[in-house]
Amino acid sequence: MTLPLLGVAIRRGDLDVLRDWIFGPGRAIEIQDFVMPEVITGDCGPLIASYRAALDGHAGARGIHGPFFGLDLSNPDPEIRAVIQARLLKGLEIAEALGATHMVVHSPFTYWHLLNRRNYAELHGQMLEAIAACLAPVLARAGDIGCDLMLENIDDTDPGDRNDVVTRIGHPNLRVSIDTGHAQLAHGRYGAPPVVDFIAEAGAHLGHVHVQDADGYADRHWHPGEGCVPWAAVFAALARSPAAPRLILEVRDRLERLPMTVAALEERGLAR
Predict the structure, then answer these.
(1) To 10 degrees, the CA torsion angle through 48, 54, 59, 62?
(2) What angle do CA 197, 198, 201 make, to 5 degrees?
(3) Mapping DSSP to helix (H, G, I), strand (E, B) and coil, where does residue 11 land?
(4) Which helix or strand (DSSP H or E) is residue 215 part of?
(5) CA-based, 20 to 30 A from 18: which of 52, 53, 191, 219?
(6) Side-chain half-sphere CA neighbours of 251 within 13 A
(7) How many CB atoms lie within 10 A of CB 211?
(8) DSSP letters along 91-118, please?
(9) DSSP string covering 29-56, please?
(10) Is the pTM of this model over 0.90?
(11) DSSP state of 63
């Protein structure tokens, strides 16, 4: 198989540290400064201008992580939903300004929803309807600017739930994202399927992967190799996937060590 070229999630300072490693092979980046409410609701112009100048000459794909704190896509209240839509539309405005072609948004499904699916038989359908209503104007705008929304697993324990959303909405700019560490947490804590089954279940809907390691207990965002995610099996599952997802390393600390982390994966014949 062709080894995947790994991209990286960054904030502004990280770009200066990793510039040569990113720019040389044309790695994809995912800009994550705009997830914070105080950033996205403020004047984003100076930060956007700083990125635009720093990214001059960058040939890789670009994306952003959209806002998510307190933004439940399945909220049934239309007034609250309007605020969520406004935040996501602001995210797309930023994505357009930065030439980003994906924006990550968070799934609202939790373990409680899985446990109570029979107890509240109507809930799953109601959630799908609410998500569709919430994302309708956002996806319309995403289509206009050529940006895909990537629906990421957070507390998801049923890997089919996000597929249900994508199928129900049926918009070409809505795809599934898998965070490997979140899936490992759900597997370890809730008995959810393993990471490889999340990948298999996503099928052709898979557009994006957050590559991070964890211990099956918490959301660690460790470098691959520091936790218990079975990376050989994960990359083999990605190679079997009918999709060609964008792969983004999303680690919390020591980003300056990422070249060594990726070199270790390359030595194992997994990535580059």
Answers:
(1) -30
(2) 80
(3) coil
(4) none
(5) 219
(6) 21
(7) 29
(8) HHHHHHHHT--EEEEE----HHHHHTTT
(9) EEE-GGGSHHHHTS--HHHHHHHHHHTT
(10) yes
(11) E
Tallying the residues shown for the chain, one arrives at 272
CA angle 161, 166, 168 (to 5 degrees): 90
Q: Which of 178, 153, 169, 156 lies closest to 234, judged by CA?
A: 178
Alpha-carbon separation of residue 136 from 143, 170, 205 (angstroms): 11, 11, 18
At 1 the pLDDT is 56
Mean pLDDT by 10 residues, the chain (272 residues): 87 96 97 96 97 97 97 97 98 98 98 90 94 98 98 97 97 98 97 97 98 97 97 96 96 94 94 89
Q: Which amino acid is at 65?
A: H
Task: Categorise residue 68: left if φ over 0, alpha if ψ from -120 to 50, beta otherwise.
Answer: alpha
> Is residue 89 within 8 Å of residue 40, measured between CB atoms?
no
pLDDT of residue 117: 87
C-alpha 75/C-alpha 82 separation (Å) is 10
Pairing of strands 29-31, 7-10: parallel
For tokens 């968070």, what's the residue?
106
* pLDDT value at residue 2: 74
Contact 89, 96 (CB under 8 A): no
Structure tokens at 212: 């991070």
Q: State how far the Cα of 246 lies from the Cα of 4, in Å rounded to an integer.
A: 9
Question: Which of 156-173 are b and which e, b meaning 16 or more Cβ less than 10 Å from the residue's Cβ?
Answer: bbbbebbbbbbeebebeb
Structure tokens at 199: 């990948």
Encoded tokens for 86: 């406004």
- Cα–Cα distance, 185 to 148 (Å, whole number): 26
What CA–CA distance (Å, rounded) separates 178 from 195? 9
